[in-house]
Write a structure and sequence with these properties.
The protein is an alpha/beta fold. It contains 14 helices and 17 strands. β12 (248-251), α9 and β13 (269-272) form a beta-alpha-beta unit. The radius of gyration is 21 Å and the shape is globular. The protein binds N-(iminomethyl)-L-glutamic acid and fe (iii) ion (FE).
C-alpha cells in the first residue's frame, strides 16, 4: 500500500472537533495529512508529520473534505432552457415541466443517458464532489425506471428509486393505478438497483397518503426512505418523513414551527437545495431557524434539467451563506458532514483517521473563500478514495 503525505495545508478542515481548534470544523492550521491506500492514515500539524512514500507540498492551500451531494437527478435527456427563460420572465415553476423530460428520457438510448450521467459526474468531480446520490424519476415505466437506476449504479452506490416523481400522462385518470405500479412491478424491477426510495410529495405530484404508500412499500422491499418535501408550499412531506424515520427531508422551503420541531425531534436531516430557489426565483428557506432548533442540515445541488441545472456544490455553499443566513463554517459542514448524515454514511464527509481519503485542495488559503469568491473555480486538486481524480 502506498502512502502520500500532503503537507503545507494552510488550513485543514477535518469536521472533527477533537482536532485543531476544537470547533465543529476541527480546523488545523499549518496542517498535513497522510493518505494510506484509500484511507486517511494520519493528520495533524505539519511539523509532526510522519514520513510517507510520496510527498506533495500544497504551498499553503486549504484542504476540505470532499463534498457530499446527497440529492441529484442526473439520468435524463434533453434540457429545459426555454422553461428557465420563461421563469426568469415571470412564469412560476410547477411540477408539470417534468413531463417534457420524461418524454425525452424515454426516447433516449442507454448510451445517451449514461453519457449524460458521466458528463455531469465529471463536472461535479472537477468542482470537488466526491460522493453523489443519483435518482431515477424521468422514466416512469418499469423498464425506464429500472434502466435509469442501472445507469446511475455505474457511478455511485447511492441510487434512489423515484418512480413516484409525478404521475405520467398515461395514468392521469388513474393515480391509484400508477401507485399500484410504483409499489408493485416497478418496485420489484428497481429495488435490486436502488439503495433508497423517494417520492415527490407536493401539489401536482403525490399527496401524503400516496407518498406514505410508496415509501412504506419501498421500505418493505429493503430500501431506505428519503423524500421531496415542502418545496412549493406548506405540505405534509416533512411530517411524513419524521413519521417514517426517513434519512432526510429535502427542499424544506416552506416550514411551520411544528415541522421544524418534528425534524429536530426525529433526527431526520433537512437537506436544503438553494440552487432551486436561485433557479426558480423562489424565497429561500431560513437555515438559521433549523440550526437554532438543533436540526441537522445538509446542502445539496438537486442537479436536474428543470428546477436547478447546476452541478456546483461551491455555488450552493455561497448561496446558503448569502441567501439562507448560514455562516461559511455551517455551510461547509452541511455540504460535507451534513450530506454524509443525509446518506447515513460515516466513511465520508469528514477527514479523520480511517475515513475515506476524499478531499479537495482549494486554490485559496482558507475554506472561507468558497463563499467569499462565488463562481470562481477554486478546486485545485480533488482526491477520492486516495486517488487524485481532478
Ligand atoms: O427536486 N421537485 C421535484 N423534482 C425536482 C425537479 C424536477 C424537474 O423539474 O425536472 C426537484 O426540484
Ligand atoms: Fe429533487
Amino acid at each position: 500500500m502506498t502512502s502520500v503525505l500532503l503537507t503545507g495545508c494552510g488550513s485543514l478542515v477535518t469536521n472533527n472537533a477533537s482536532h485543531g481548534d476544537g470547533s465543529r470544523l476541527g480546523l488545523v492550521a499549518d496542517g498535513a495529512l497522510v493518505i494510506d491506500g484509500d484511507r486517511v492514515g494520519w493528520l495533524g500539524s505539519r511539523r509532526d508529520a510522519p514520513p510517507a512514500d510520496a510527498v506533495v507540498d500544497l504551498g499553503g492551500r486549504a484542504v476540505v473534505p470532499g463534498f457530499v451531494d446527497a440529492h441529484s437527478h442526473l439520468v435524463f435527456a434533453g434540457d429545459r432552457a426555454e422553461e428557465f427563460a420563461a421563469r426568469m420572465a415571470g412564469e412560476p415553476y410547477t411540477a408539470g415541466g417534468i413531463a417534457s423530460t420524461v418524454t425525452a428520457t424515454r426516447a433516449a438510448s442507454d448510451e445517451e443517458l449514461a453519457a449524460t450521467v458521466a458528463r455531469l459526474v465529471a463536472e461535479m468531480t472537477r468542482q470537488g464532489t466526491t460522493t453523489v446520490e443519483v435518482k431515477s424519476g424521468y422514466g416512469l415505466t418499469v423498464i425506464d425506471e429500472a434502466r435509469s437506476l442501472a445507469i446511475a449504479g455505474r457511478v455511485t452506490p447511492e441510487t434512489t428509486y423515484l418512480g413516484a416523481h409525478v404521475v405520467p400522462a398515461e395514468y392521469a385518470d388513474d393515480v391509484a393505478g400508477y401507485v399500484d405500479l410504483v409499489t408493485g412491478p416497478m418496485l420489484d424491477a428497481c429495488a435490486p438497483y436502488a439503495r433508497w426510495v423517494d417520492v415527490f410529495c407536493e401539489q401536482g405530484a403525490f399527496d401524503a397518503d400516496a407518498a406514505r404508500t410508496v415509501l412504506s412499500a419501498g421500505m418493505r422491499a429493503g430500501l431506505q426512505a428519503r423524500i421531496h418535501a415542502n418545496q412549493l408550499g406548506h405540505g405534509p412531506g416533512v411530517q411524513l418523513a419524521c413519521e417514517l424515520g426517513a434519512a432526510a427531508a429535502d427542499h424544506c422551503t416552506y416550514l411551520h414551527d411544528a415541522d421544524v420541531d418534528a425534524l429536530a425531534q426525529s433526527g431526520v436531516v433537512a437537506t436544503l437545495l438553494p440552487g432551486v430557489e436561485f433557479s426558480t426565483r423562489s424565497p429561500y428557506p431560513d437555515a438559521q431557524r433549523l440550526l437554532a432548533a438543533g436540526v441537522t442540515v445538509a446542502l445539496a445541488t438537486d442537479c436536474n434539467p428543470g428546477s436547478c441545472y447546476t452541478s456546483s456544490m461551491p455555488l450552493c455553499i455561497a448561496l446558503a451563506v448569502r441567501e439562507m443566513g448560514m455562516s461559511p463554517a455551517q455551510a461547509l459542514w452541511a455540504a460535507t458532514a451534513g450530506g454524509a448524515a443525509a446518506l447515513r454514511r460515516d466513511d465520508v464527509g469528514h477527514l479523520g483517521v480511517g475515513a475515506r481519503a476524499d478531499l479537495v485542495v482549494l486554490d485559496a488559503p482558507s475554506y472561507l473563500h468558497l463563499a467569499y469568491r462565488p463562481g470562481v473555480p477554486l478546486a485545485h486538486a480533488v482526491w477520492r478514495a486516495g486517488h487524485q481524480v481532478a
